[in-house]
Amino acid sequence: MELLCIQSQEHPELPLAELKAVMECEDIDAAIDDVAEGLVVLKDISDDKIEGYYKILTRRLGYTHEVHEMIIKSNTEKLDEDIKSVDWSEYIDENFAVRVKRLHSQIDTVATERRIGTLILENSENIKVNLSKPKTLIRVAAFENDLYIAIERFKLNKKHFEKSKPHKRPFFYPGSMNPKLARCMVNLSRIKEGELLLDPFCGTGGILIEAGLIGCKVVGSDIYWKMQNGTAINLDYYGITDYRTFHLDVRELKMYEKVASVVTDPPYGISTSTGDVDGEEIFKEFFYSIYDNMRDDAYLCMASPHYVDLNPMVDEVGFEIVEQYGIKMHRSLTRIISVIRKKLD
Ligand SMILES: C[S@@+](CC[C@H](N)C(=O)[O-])C[C@H]1O[C@@H](n2cnc3c(N)ncnc32)[C@H](O)[C@@H]1O
Fold it and tell me: Edge-to-edge strands of the sheet including 333-342?
């Protein structure tokens, strides 16, 4: 069986990297066909696994907008025969709607929706079209002339990322990252539900909210009491209960329990205070301090500005960089997202 993933196109690499990281840590066994930017098909999934995988992906992913169960891959030429070959009663419950999403395709969306809807009606009994509140949504992703026809079984909570934007939280302070990127970074850290995630520069708690919402235990610390308190207010607001917060300098960090992942956005530039540490020095001090607080198999996912070279610092401390992605913020700043782990001996 197959799952169709429609992804954000706001970054050329992060959506696929996030999907691969979740598949890795959740042991999702499937072949990845990355058809085009924004369109990925997961193939060769066993029947008994598909529902579980589907639920995990819809619950966790930030940069994937939709996940659907594939029914058939067709194209504009052989659409009639392909639609006829499907037993639609297996998929459609009373009524349905067809919605087409174009990804690098010139096809006429409305005409294709009508054509597929009519063909389904002609090849089935006792079903109707209901465009406003369909019980079954048939989702079609069009790539060039290919049509990936799928059914929506579980919905992603798309509104969450709108509702959790920094200025909509009860405690706001400038400098919190976009919640989708925060979720993606949590996923890149390969953390699993129930495991412990730490953000030692937690600020307003943006990263911890995303980790808490996918079921991680979270710990946040910040040099300022005001931030510790604000993080707790925000976590409470989003219904996250399994958390602890501290206010301390990252250089004094000593966890009782080693963490399964660290996800963080350290301070840099003139807009964020670094306590009394200078510019790049904070990164090095952070690596030294965090190393012993991480499990040997833990991942660290962090953001940094392009002008700070992390390579010599991580190497000195005993870490290695395993993935890196650049996000252009403006002409003079690219944010680098790095996935780091302890060097294997
Ligand atoms: C870029 S902000 C983090 C934003 C955060 N991700 C959020 O969602 O709001 C960096 C944070 O690091 C904190 N900080 C600065 N120097 C620190 C230090 N030496 N130890 C711990 N925290 C520090 C600042 O107070 C600030 O809240």
Answer: 243-247, 217-222, 196-199, 259-264, 294-305, 333-342, 319-330
Return the residue whose CA atom lies nearest to atom 7 of ligand 1. 176
* Residue 15 CA to ligand 1 centre (angstroms): 26
CATH of 3-151, one of 1.10.150.130, 3.40.50.1390, 3.40.1190.20, 3.30.2130.30: 3.30.2130.30
Give residues (CB < 6 A) around ligand 1. Answer: 175-177, 200-201, 203-207, 222-224, 227, 249-250, 265, 267, 272-275, 277
With CA atoms as reference, report the closest residue to 17 among 182, 184, 210.
184
Q: pLDDT tens digits, residue range 67-115?
A: 999 999 999 999 999 999 999 999 998 999 999 999 989 999 999 999 9
The CATH code belonging to domain 160-342 is 3.40.50.150
274 Cα nearest atom in ligand 1: 16
Q: Cα 21 vs. chain centroid, distance in angstroms?
A: 9
pTM value is 0.96
What are 314's two structure tokens? 């991580």
Same fold, 3-151 and 160-342: no
- Ligand 1: atom nearest CA of 266 is 10
Tell me the per-residue pLDDT of 293-333, one tens digit each, with 9 for 90 and over. Answer: 999 999 999 999 999 999 999 999 999 999 999 999 999 99
